[in-house]
Amino acid sequence: MSTGGSGEARMSGEDALIARLFEPIARHPGALGLKDDAALLAVPPGHELVLTKDALVAGVHFFADDAPGSVARKALRVNLSDLAAKGARPLGILLAIAIPADMSSAALEAFATGLGEDASDYGAPLLGGDTVRTDGPLTISITAVGAVPTGSMVKRASAPAGQAIVVTGTIGDAALGLALRLAPDRPGFKALAPDERAFLADRYLHPRPRLALAGALRRCASAAMDVSDGLVGDLAKMLAASGVGGEIEAARVPLSVAARAAIAAEPELMVTALTGGDDYEILAVMADEQLDTFAATATASGIGTAVIGRTFAGEGLMVRDALGAPLPVGQGSFSHF
Amino acid sequence: MSTGGSGEARMSGEDALIARLFEPIARHPGALGLKDDAALLAVPPGHELVLTKDALVAGVHFFADDAPGSVARKALRVNLSDLAAKGARPLGILLAIAIPADMSSAALEAFATGLGEDASDYGAPLLGGDTVRTDGPLTISITAVGAVPTGSMVKRASAPAGQAIVVTGTIGDAALGLALRLAPDRPGFKALAPDERAFLADRYLHPRPRLALAGALRRCASAAMDVSDGLVGDLAKMLAASGVGGEIEAARVPLSVAARAAIAAEPELMVTALTGGDDYEILAVMADEQLDTFAATATASGIGTAVIGRTFAGEGLMVRDALGAPLPVGQGSFSHF
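Output (structure tokens, whole complex):
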């Protein structure tokens, strides 16, 4: 972790902090013990780099009172989810963390522990980064470096007409988990059993990057992205970028038992599930003849897949209800700008 | 620029902002128009990656009223300085920017313009990143991706005993520029002509990454780092990491005309120059027989070099004054932790 400039957290204090917390999780030789200006990384022959960088701010992307270990895991996983969607495998990560003055050593340690466990579990070693102080909220930026065999990155803007629209896992759990946290007394959530509430809350806190599907996506998908800003909005983006139209049936969107129970008790939560963010599932478009192979690979990794619609020559996204009528889902996503 | 998760700045508003400000400076084909989840980058054959990531926070690493274009340039240049010190050439950058609600569109545009000009000038195209909102100060993290011929990265911990300690450019200007900004009425600064004050102020705002020396460092240097946290402190770190001792003569540390004038009027500013941060010059250790080649290459690029001391078998760093007496410079750097 290099330190740069005036007012930087540095020298003995920062060095000690870094050494204690982050060096143990930076065992990759290219991390150089976090003691150099930069990290060194060999790229496997015949491979290209896939690079992504997401930032998370306390009070915006997570709750200030979320467990620091969960925050670290989420910050890492949202980046790994981008790599998975592109068919890439992780090579390593860089972390920048801006630490508020009131963040305790214990909280920092929990953050580092969570990050270290995930970095190990997902094969994404910490290579370097920067730790600085801030007068503002805890702010985390992770850069994930991945690799794909040259020419095989799965793009977003390459969805052809006449192919199947596929999603992995279940959709809406995280958005419902967030809604539950904000308003636990809504009828949809009061109808849930405690373990169902815990499941939704966990899905908001802990995305599950679908790295196990990276190879299958490279082989089977014409286009893919991860669902981070809501299924409907993200699919609309992918279709627009690809210059095709699409149609999905809401009834075919895979829902968890908990999500189904919440929606049964409060039907308007269906719109939350379809348009809310933080799913971190894969949304892919693929030819019909690839569906069985993709589903079989996913199943072997314990990941469900569902065909939810088709692309067509044209433009726009139509979401239909079980009777075939257009379902009003607003603009499908939400903007702070 | 991918967008990830609930509360993210996203969809139409963010997309429009990104498109207007950042897409024009992301012309590298691997940036995919900032419209995919990740960027794609080919690494030149026979090369390894050099990766660095520095974060800057308003009120900590720069003044909240610094011109946004200057802030962008500094954020980029401190990262490129790390690449230069490692002998790497830039391949591209990723940017994460957390934008306070009160940052105007004009300020954002100035930020993007400064970043774009520098990215172009230094051959470090914007590949991707993330724009998010924050309730706190403007926070910027840049990841710089560079490349070196395999096996040739110049490390920090590889300084042998019995070699020359070399610095580029002039030392202390940025630290004096910061001191000038904080206390313009100090005798050392009142003694300066207006253009000398402007020079120091500019050196604080606009580091000059020594990318032109990357090749010469690979060929000539045994070890190198960029001077970001103060010459004395950074040299002490390099020596300790390398397991050798060193001695420098303060009188041989290259000073600008403005720095010399300020120190002449207020001698204690010499300690500021030797221990203050933000130089972003190169500190290198090299064999005596490499000195001429290195100096000639630097001169050809308009960059001065100076031998300021030697390494020796042992430990610690001794700073001597012109008479050979040890100069008290404290711990050589400053920590917020």
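Residues 1-11, 332-337 of chain A have pLDDT under 50 and may be disordered.
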